[in-house]
Amino acid sequence: MSESVDVVVIGAGAAGLMCAAVAGQRGQRVVLLDHASRLAEKIRISGGGRCNFTNIGTTWQQFLSANPAFCRSALANYTPDDFLTLVRSHGIAWHEKHKGQLFCDDSSEQIIDMLVAECDKGRVKRRMQAQVLALRQDGGRYAVDTQAGTLHADKLVIATGGMAIPQLGATDFGLKAARQFGLKIIEPRPALVPLTFDQAGWKPFAELSGLAVPVRLETGDGKRRGVFDEDLLFTHRGLSGPGILQISSYWEPATPIRIDLLPGRRLAQELVQRKQGSRQNLVTALGEVWPRRLAENWLQDRGIPPEQRLADTADRHLTQLADGAQPWTLTPSGTVGYKKAEVMRGGVDTRELDQKTMQARAMPRLYFIGEVVDVTGWLGGYNFQWAWASAVACGRAL
Ligand code: FDA
Protein backbone atom coordinates (compact mmCIF):
# COMPACT_ATOMS: atom_id res chain seq x y z
CA MET A 1 0.00 0.00 0.00
CA SER A 2 1.28 3.45 -0.87
CA GLU A 3 -0.06 6.81 0.28
CA SER A 4 0.88 10.38 -0.54
CA VAL A 5 0.64 13.25 1.98
CA ASP A 6 2.19 16.66 2.60
CA VAL A 7 3.88 15.88 5.91
CA VAL A 8 4.90 12.78 7.84
CA VAL A 9 5.74 13.35 11.50
CA ILE A 10 7.50 10.41 13.20
CA GLY A 11 7.01 10.31 16.98
CA ALA A 12 3.67 11.06 18.66
CA GLY A 13 5.10 12.52 21.85
CA ALA A 14 5.00 16.10 23.09
CA ALA A 15 6.74 17.70 20.10
CA GLY A 16 5.26 15.45 17.41
CA LEU A 17 1.65 15.96 18.54
CA MET A 18 2.08 19.74 18.78
CA CYS A 19 3.79 20.02 15.41
CA ALA A 20 1.22 17.80 13.66
CA ALA A 21 -1.63 19.86 15.16
CA VAL A 22 -0.15 23.19 14.04
CA ALA A 23 0.65 21.94 10.52
CA GLY A 24 -2.74 20.23 10.18
CA GLN A 25 -4.59 23.36 11.22
CA ARG A 26 -2.66 25.28 8.57
CA GLY A 27 -4.16 22.99 5.92
CA GLN A 28 -1.34 20.46 5.53
CA ARG A 29 -2.28 16.81 5.10
CA VAL A 30 -0.39 15.25 8.00
CA VAL A 31 0.23 11.66 9.07
CA LEU A 32 1.63 11.16 12.57
CA LEU A 33 3.38 7.82 13.18
CA ASP A 34 4.52 6.15 16.39
CA HIS A 35 5.77 2.65 17.11
CA ALA A 36 4.26 2.56 20.61
CA SER A 37 0.74 1.34 21.30
CA ARG A 38 -0.12 4.45 23.36
CA LEU A 39 0.89 7.95 22.38
CA ALA A 40 2.75 10.44 24.54
CA GLU A 41 3.76 8.03 27.30
CA LYS A 42 6.22 10.55 28.72
CA ILE A 43 3.58 13.23 29.06
CA ARG A 44 1.42 10.64 30.83
CA ILE A 45 4.01 9.84 33.52
CA SER A 46 5.49 13.33 33.77
CA GLY A 47 5.33 15.45 36.88
CA GLY A 48 4.17 12.48 38.95
CA GLY A 49 1.09 12.13 36.69
CA ARG A 50 0.26 15.85 36.74
CA CYS A 51 2.65 17.01 33.99
CA ASN A 52 4.84 20.00 34.78
CA PHE A 53 3.92 21.32 31.35
CA THR A 54 5.92 24.54 31.33
CA ASN A 55 7.84 27.01 33.45
CA ILE A 56 6.73 30.63 33.45
CA GLY A 57 10.32 31.77 34.04
CA THR A 58 11.63 30.16 30.83
CA THR A 59 14.53 31.91 29.13
CA TRP A 60 17.13 30.46 26.78
CA GLN A 61 19.60 30.41 29.67
CA GLN A 62 17.95 27.39 31.29
CA PHE A 63 19.01 25.18 28.39
CA LEU A 64 22.25 23.35 27.65
CA SER A 65 23.50 23.02 24.10
CA ALA A 66 26.78 23.09 22.21
CA ASN A 67 25.21 26.11 20.49
CA PRO A 68 23.42 27.84 23.39
CA ALA A 69 21.74 30.69 21.46
CA PHE A 70 20.03 28.33 18.99
CA CYS A 71 16.89 27.86 21.08
CA ARG A 72 16.27 31.60 21.59
CA SER A 73 14.20 32.24 18.50
CA ALA A 74 11.80 29.31 18.96
CA LEU A 75 11.38 30.03 22.69
CA ALA A 76 10.69 33.71 21.98
CA ASN A 77 8.10 32.91 19.33
CA TYR A 78 6.17 30.42 21.42
CA THR A 79 6.26 31.30 25.11
CA PRO A 80 4.91 29.66 28.28
CA ASP A 81 2.06 32.22 28.09
CA ASP A 82 1.17 30.99 24.62
CA PHE A 83 0.98 27.42 25.90
CA LEU A 84 -1.07 28.58 28.90
CA THR A 85 -3.53 30.25 26.55
CA LEU A 86 -4.01 26.88 24.85
CA VAL A 87 -4.35 25.10 28.20
CA ARG A 88 -6.97 27.65 29.35
CA SER A 89 -8.90 27.35 26.09
CA HIS A 90 -9.34 23.63 26.87
CA GLY A 91 -10.58 24.40 30.37
CA ILE A 92 -7.69 22.60 32.07
CA ALA A 93 -7.18 23.67 35.67
CA TRP A 94 -3.55 24.24 36.67
CA HIS A 95 -1.45 25.57 39.51
CA GLU A 96 2.04 26.88 40.09
CA LYS A 97 4.38 24.92 42.32
CA HIS A 98 7.71 26.43 43.33
CA LYS A 99 10.11 28.21 40.96
CA GLY A 100 7.58 28.90 38.18
CA GLN A 101 6.66 25.26 37.56
CA LEU A 102 3.11 24.83 36.23
CA PHE A 103 1.22 21.57 36.75
CA CYS A 104 -2.26 20.26 35.92
CA ASP A 105 -4.54 20.19 38.96
CA ASP A 106 -5.93 16.83 37.91
CA SER A 107 -4.02 14.72 35.43
CA SER A 108 -1.42 14.80 32.68
CA GLU A 109 -3.97 12.93 30.54
CA GLN A 110 -5.64 16.32 30.09
CA ILE A 111 -2.59 17.64 28.24
CA ILE A 112 -2.61 14.54 26.01
CA ASP A 113 -6.36 14.92 25.35
CA MET A 114 -5.80 18.58 24.52
CA LEU A 115 -3.07 17.79 21.99
CA VAL A 116 -5.13 14.99 20.43
CA ALA A 117 -8.11 17.37 20.11
CA GLU A 118 -5.84 19.93 18.44
CA CYS A 119 -4.61 17.23 16.04
CA ASP A 120 -8.20 16.23 15.28
CA LYS A 121 -8.98 19.88 14.53
CA GLY A 122 -6.21 19.74 11.95
CA ARG A 123 -7.45 16.38 10.55
CA VAL A 124 -4.17 14.73 11.44
CA LYS A 125 -4.15 10.99 10.74
CA ARG A 126 -2.62 9.15 13.66
CA ARG A 127 -1.05 5.71 13.18
CA MET A 128 0.12 3.90 16.29
CA GLN A 129 2.18 0.68 16.41
CA ALA A 130 3.75 1.79 13.14
CA GLN A 131 7.20 0.29 12.66
CA VAL A 132 9.31 2.51 10.42
CA LEU A 133 11.49 0.14 8.41
CA ALA A 134 13.38 2.69 6.33
CA LEU A 135 13.55 6.35 5.34
CA ARG A 136 14.42 7.16 1.75
CA GLN A 137 14.55 10.05 -0.68
CA ASP A 138 12.41 9.33 -3.68
CA GLY A 139 12.22 11.75 -6.60
CA GLY A 140 12.55 14.90 -4.46
CA ARG A 141 10.14 13.59 -1.81
CA TYR A 142 10.61 11.48 1.29
CA ALA A 143 9.51 7.86 1.41
CA VAL A 144 8.77 6.29 4.78
CA ASP A 145 8.58 2.51 4.56
CA THR A 146 6.47 0.96 7.31
CA GLN A 147 5.22 -2.57 7.86
CA ALA A 148 1.82 -1.35 6.58
CA GLY A 149 3.17 0.19 3.37
CA THR A 150 5.02 3.27 2.13
CA LEU A 151 4.14 6.89 2.86
CA HIS A 152 5.36 9.52 0.42
CA ALA A 153 5.65 13.05 1.80
CA ASP A 154 6.97 16.43 0.74
CA LYS A 155 8.21 17.07 4.25
CA LEU A 156 9.49 14.79 6.97
CA VAL A 157 9.59 15.72 10.66
CA ILE A 158 11.57 13.60 13.13
CA ALA A 159 10.15 13.95 16.66
CA THR A 160 11.21 10.65 18.20
CA GLY A 161 12.67 12.19 21.37
CA GLY A 162 15.72 11.03 23.31
CA MET A 163 16.81 7.69 24.70
CA ALA A 164 15.67 8.15 28.29
CA ILE A 165 13.39 5.38 29.62
CA PRO A 166 13.68 2.80 26.82
CA GLN A 167 11.09 0.73 28.69
CA LEU A 168 8.54 3.37 27.56
CA GLY A 169 9.52 3.13 23.90
CA ALA A 170 12.45 5.55 23.71
CA THR A 171 14.91 4.74 20.92
CA ASP A 172 17.86 6.22 19.06
CA PHE A 173 15.77 6.39 15.88
CA GLY A 174 16.17 10.16 15.53
CA LEU A 175 19.94 10.00 15.89
CA LYS A 176 20.17 7.24 13.28
CA ALA A 177 17.96 9.22 10.92
CA ALA A 178 20.15 12.30 11.38
CA ARG A 179 23.28 10.29 10.62
CA GLN A 180 21.65 8.69 7.60
CA PHE A 181 21.03 12.13 6.11
CA GLY A 182 24.54 13.33 6.94
CA LEU A 183 23.80 15.51 10.00
CA LYS A 184 26.30 15.70 12.85
CA ILE A 185 25.43 14.53 16.36
CA ILE A 186 26.56 15.92 19.70
CA GLU A 187 27.40 12.88 21.81
CA PRO A 188 24.23 11.82 23.63
CA ARG A 189 24.27 11.09 27.38
CA PRO A 190 21.73 10.52 30.12
CA ALA A 191 20.82 13.81 31.88
CA LEU A 192 18.59 14.82 34.79
CA VAL A 193 19.78 11.53 36.23
CA PRO A 194 20.96 10.23 39.65
CA LEU A 195 24.73 9.94 40.08
CA THR A 196 26.55 6.84 41.33
CA PHE A 197 29.80 6.41 43.24
CA ASP A 198 32.40 3.72 43.65
CA GLN A 199 30.55 1.23 45.86
CA ALA A 200 33.35 0.64 48.40
CA GLY A 201 33.87 4.38 48.91
CA TRP A 202 30.12 5.00 49.10
CA LYS A 203 29.42 2.38 51.77
CA PRO A 204 29.43 4.79 54.73
CA PHE A 205 26.98 7.14 52.99
CA ALA A 206 24.68 4.34 51.77
CA GLU A 207 23.40 4.23 55.36
CA LEU A 208 21.95 7.70 54.80
CA SER A 209 19.69 6.41 52.01
CA GLY A 210 16.39 8.32 52.02
CA LEU A 211 17.80 11.42 53.71
CA ALA A 212 17.25 14.77 51.95
CA VAL A 213 19.15 17.99 52.70
CA PRO A 214 19.09 21.46 51.11
CA VAL A 215 22.45 22.19 49.49
CA ARG A 216 24.22 24.31 46.90
CA LEU A 217 25.72 22.18 44.10
CA GLU A 218 28.28 23.15 41.55
CA THR A 219 30.24 21.50 38.75
CA GLY A 220 32.27 22.46 35.70
CA ASP A 221 33.69 25.85 34.90
CA GLY A 222 33.37 28.70 32.43
CA LYS A 223 30.40 28.30 30.10
CA ARG A 224 29.86 24.71 31.26
CA ARG A 225 29.50 25.65 34.94
CA GLY A 226 26.27 24.66 36.64
CA VAL A 227 25.20 25.96 40.07
CA PHE A 228 21.94 25.01 41.78
CA ASP A 229 20.37 25.57 45.20
CA GLU A 230 18.16 22.53 45.64
CA ASP A 231 17.64 19.42 47.75
CA LEU A 232 19.99 16.48 47.58
CA LEU A 233 18.85 12.94 48.35
CA PHE A 234 21.11 10.13 49.55
CA THR A 235 20.47 6.74 47.93
CA HIS A 236 22.00 3.27 48.28
CA ARG A 237 24.08 3.74 45.13
CA GLY A 238 24.82 7.45 45.32
CA LEU A 239 23.02 10.76 45.15
CA SER A 240 19.73 11.87 43.68
CA GLY A 241 17.05 14.52 44.35
CA PRO A 242 16.35 17.66 42.31
CA GLY A 243 19.75 19.24 42.98
CA ILE A 244 21.65 16.21 41.72
CA LEU A 245 19.37 15.80 38.68
CA GLN A 246 20.06 19.41 37.74
CA ILE A 247 23.81 19.17 38.21
CA SER A 248 23.99 15.83 36.37
CA SER A 249 23.23 17.62 33.09
CA TYR A 250 26.41 19.67 33.53
CA TRP A 251 28.57 16.89 34.92
CA GLU A 252 31.41 15.50 32.78
CA PRO A 253 32.77 12.00 33.56
CA ALA A 254 35.82 11.86 35.84
CA THR A 255 35.27 15.43 37.07
CA PRO A 256 34.21 16.42 40.59
CA ILE A 257 31.01 17.94 41.89
CA ARG A 258 31.13 20.41 44.79
CA ILE A 259 28.38 20.31 47.38
CA ASP A 260 27.99 23.03 50.01
CA LEU A 261 26.23 21.20 52.84
CA LEU A 262 25.30 24.45 54.64
CA PRO A 263 24.57 27.02 51.93
CA GLY A 264 24.65 30.67 52.94
CA ARG A 265 26.41 30.02 56.25
CA ARG A 266 29.99 29.50 57.44
CA LEU A 267 30.05 26.31 59.46
CA ALA A 268 33.69 26.69 60.59
CA GLN A 269 33.05 30.16 62.00
CA GLU A 270 29.82 29.08 63.71
CA LEU A 271 31.47 26.08 65.41
CA VAL A 272 34.47 28.09 66.62
CA GLN A 273 32.22 30.88 67.95
CA ARG A 274 29.96 28.41 69.72
CA LYS A 275 32.88 26.75 71.55
CA GLN A 276 33.10 29.35 74.32
CA GLY A 277 31.65 27.84 77.51
CA SER A 278 29.83 25.16 75.50
CA ARG A 279 29.00 21.80 77.05
CA GLN A 280 27.81 20.37 73.72
CA ASN A 281 29.44 17.41 72.09
CA LEU A 282 30.23 17.50 68.37
CA VAL A 283 27.31 15.41 67.18
CA THR A 284 24.83 17.67 69.00
CA ALA A 285 26.47 20.80 67.61
CA LEU A 286 26.42 19.47 64.06
CA GLY A 287 22.92 18.08 64.65
CA GLU A 288 21.73 21.67 65.05
CA VAL A 289 22.64 22.50 61.46
CA TRP A 290 22.15 19.09 59.80
CA PRO A 291 19.86 16.11 60.31
CA ARG A 292 21.28 14.04 63.19
CA ARG A 293 21.98 11.04 60.91
CA LEU A 294 24.19 13.16 58.67
CA ALA A 295 26.01 14.64 61.66
CA GLU A 296 26.74 11.16 63.07
CA ASN A 297 27.79 9.81 59.73
CA TRP A 298 30.03 12.79 58.96
CA LEU A 299 31.96 12.39 62.20
CA GLN A 300 32.15 8.61 61.90
CA ASP A 301 33.51 8.85 58.34
CA ARG A 302 36.28 11.11 59.61
CA GLY A 303 37.12 8.89 62.57
CA ILE A 304 35.99 11.52 65.12
CA PRO A 305 34.09 10.26 68.19
CA PRO A 306 30.60 11.83 68.10
CA GLU A 307 30.66 12.43 71.85
CA GLN A 308 33.86 14.49 71.62
CA ARG A 309 33.13 17.86 73.20
CA LEU A 310 33.07 20.93 71.05
CA ALA A 311 35.02 22.89 73.67
CA ASP A 312 37.78 20.26 73.63
CA THR A 313 38.24 20.35 69.86
CA ALA A 314 40.99 22.58 68.49
CA ASP A 315 39.87 25.43 66.21
CA ARG A 316 41.90 24.04 63.34
CA HIS A 317 40.19 20.64 63.67
CA LEU A 318 36.78 22.29 63.68
CA THR A 319 37.80 24.28 60.63
CA GLN A 320 39.00 21.11 58.87
CA LEU A 321 35.77 19.33 59.74
CA ALA A 322 33.65 22.20 58.40
CA ASP A 323 35.77 22.90 55.33
CA GLY A 324 35.30 19.30 54.22
CA ALA A 325 31.58 20.05 54.00
CA GLN A 326 31.89 23.48 52.37
CA PRO A 327 32.30 22.26 49.76
CA TRP A 328 32.13 18.50 49.99
CA THR A 329 34.05 17.63 46.82
CA LEU A 330 33.47 14.21 45.32
CA THR A 331 33.80 12.54 41.94
CA PRO A 332 30.91 10.38 40.75
CA SER A 333 31.79 7.11 39.02
CA GLY A 334 28.85 7.46 36.64
CA THR A 335 25.08 7.82 36.37
CA VAL A 336 22.30 5.27 36.75
CA GLY A 337 21.85 5.56 32.96
CA TYR A 338 18.98 5.99 30.52
CA LYS A 339 16.71 3.61 32.44
CA LYS A 340 16.26 6.24 35.16
CA ALA A 341 17.23 9.45 33.34
CA GLU A 342 14.55 12.05 32.70
CA VAL A 343 16.09 13.24 29.45
CA MET A 344 18.95 12.77 27.00
CA ARG A 345 21.44 15.56 26.56
CA GLY A 346 23.24 15.99 23.23
CA GLY A 347 21.51 14.95 20.02
CA VAL A 348 21.24 16.49 16.57
CA ASP A 349 23.84 19.28 16.32
CA THR A 350 21.85 22.51 16.13
CA ARG A 351 24.42 24.02 13.76
CA GLU A 352 22.89 21.64 11.21
CA LEU A 353 19.43 23.17 11.66
CA ASP A 354 17.73 26.47 10.90
CA GLN A 355 16.75 28.06 14.23
CA LYS A 356 13.51 29.55 12.91
CA THR A 357 12.09 26.40 11.29
CA MET A 358 14.15 23.44 12.64
CA GLN A 359 14.82 22.45 9.02
CA ALA A 360 18.11 20.68 8.22
CA ARG A 361 20.29 23.17 6.37
CA ALA A 362 21.68 20.60 3.96
CA MET A 363 18.50 18.52 3.56
CA PRO A 364 15.55 20.56 2.35
CA ARG A 365 12.18 19.71 3.94
CA LEU A 366 13.68 17.48 6.66
CA TYR A 367 13.06 18.73 10.22
CA PHE A 368 14.11 17.71 13.75
CA ILE A 369 12.19 18.89 16.83
CA GLY A 370 11.98 18.24 20.58
CA GLU A 371 14.42 16.29 22.67
CA VAL A 372 16.24 14.62 19.76
CA VAL A 373 17.80 18.05 19.13
CA ASP A 374 20.83 19.12 21.19
CA VAL A 375 18.81 21.44 23.45
CA THR A 376 18.37 20.16 27.01
CA GLY A 377 16.40 22.04 29.62
CA TRP A 378 16.73 22.18 33.36
CA LEU A 379 14.34 20.24 35.55
CA GLY A 380 11.07 22.12 36.08
CA GLY A 381 8.96 22.21 32.90
CA TYR A 382 11.66 23.54 30.57
CA ASN A 383 11.93 20.40 28.46
CA PHE A 384 8.24 20.44 27.60
CA GLN A 385 8.47 24.15 26.80
CA TRP A 386 11.25 23.33 24.34
CA ALA A 387 9.15 20.51 22.85
CA TRP A 388 6.19 22.91 22.34
CA ALA A 389 8.30 25.81 21.06
CA SER A 390 10.42 23.81 18.60
CA ALA A 391 7.28 22.02 17.38
CA VAL A 392 5.40 25.25 16.77
CA ALA A 393 8.40 26.82 14.98
CA CYS A 394 8.47 23.82 12.68
CA GLY A 395 4.68 23.44 12.32
CA ARG A 396 4.31 27.06 11.24
CA ALA A 397 6.98 26.57 8.58
CA LEU A 398 5.53 23.41 7.04
P1 FDA B 1 8.84 12.17 23.53
O1 FDA B 1 9.70 11.20 24.22
O2 FDA B 1 7.77 12.85 24.27
O3 FDA B 1 8.15 11.49 22.26
C1 FDA B 1 8.86 10.69 21.36
C2 FDA B 1 7.89 9.73 20.70
O4 FDA B 1 8.59 9.05 19.65
C3 FDA B 1 7.36 8.66 21.63
O5 FDA B 1 5.95 8.60 21.58
C4 FDA B 1 8.02 7.36 21.14
O6 FDA B 1 7.18 6.24 21.28
C5 FDA B 1 8.24 7.69 19.67
N1 FDA B 1 9.33 6.91 19.07
C6 FDA B 1 10.55 6.69 19.58
N2 FDA B 1 11.24 5.90 18.74
C7 FDA B 1 10.43 5.62 17.70
C8 FDA B 1 10.57 4.84 16.52
N3 FDA B 1 11.69 4.14 16.29
N4 FDA B 1 9.53 4.78 15.64
C9 FDA B 1 8.38 5.45 15.89
N5 FDA B 1 8.18 6.18 17.00
C10 FDA B 1 9.20 6.28 17.89
N6 FDA B 1 9.72 17.45 31.13
C11 FDA B 1 9.09 18.55 31.62
O7 FDA B 1 9.24 19.62 31.04
N7 FDA B 1 8.26 18.44 32.71
C12 FDA B 1 8.06 17.26 33.36
O8 FDA B 1 7.26 17.18 34.30
C13 FDA B 1 8.76 16.12 32.90
N8 FDA B 1 8.66 14.94 33.57
C14 FDA B 1 9.31 13.84 33.08
C15 FDA B 1 9.22 12.63 33.79
C16 FDA B 1 9.87 11.50 33.30
C17 FDA B 1 9.82 10.22 34.09
C18 FDA B 1 10.60 11.57 32.08
C19 FDA B 1 11.28 10.35 31.51
C20 FDA B 1 10.70 12.76 31.39
C21 FDA B 1 10.06 13.91 31.88
N9 FDA B 1 10.19 15.14 31.23
C22 FDA B 1 9.55 16.24 31.74
C23 FDA B 1 10.92 15.26 29.95
C24 FDA B 1 9.91 15.27 28.79
O9 FDA B 1 9.04 14.16 28.94
C25 FDA B 1 10.61 15.18 27.43
O10 FDA B 1 11.64 16.12 27.35
C26 FDA B 1 9.62 15.39 26.30
O11 FDA B 1 8.63 14.38 26.35
C27 FDA B 1 10.31 15.36 24.95
O12 FDA B 1 9.34 15.45 23.95
P2 FDA B 1 9.59 14.76 22.54
O13 FDA B 1 8.31 14.88 21.80
O14 FDA B 1 10.83 15.26 21.94
O15 FDA B 1 9.85 13.22 22.87
UniProtKB/TrEMBL annotation:
Q: Where is the RsdA/BaiN/AoA(So)-like insert domain?
A: 189-343
What residue intervals traverse the membrane?
Answer: none
Domain RsdA/BaiN/AoA(So)-like Rossmann fold-like: where? 6-396
* Family annotation (InterPro entries): BaiN-like, BaiN-like_dom_sf, FAD/NAD-bd_sf, RsdA/BaiN/AoA(So)-like_dom, RsdA/BaiN/AoA(So)_Rossmann
Give the UniProt keywords, A-Z. FAD, Flavoprotein
Cofactor dependence: FAD
One Pfam family recorded for the sequence = HI0933_like_1st
Q: What is this protein called?
A: Membrane protein
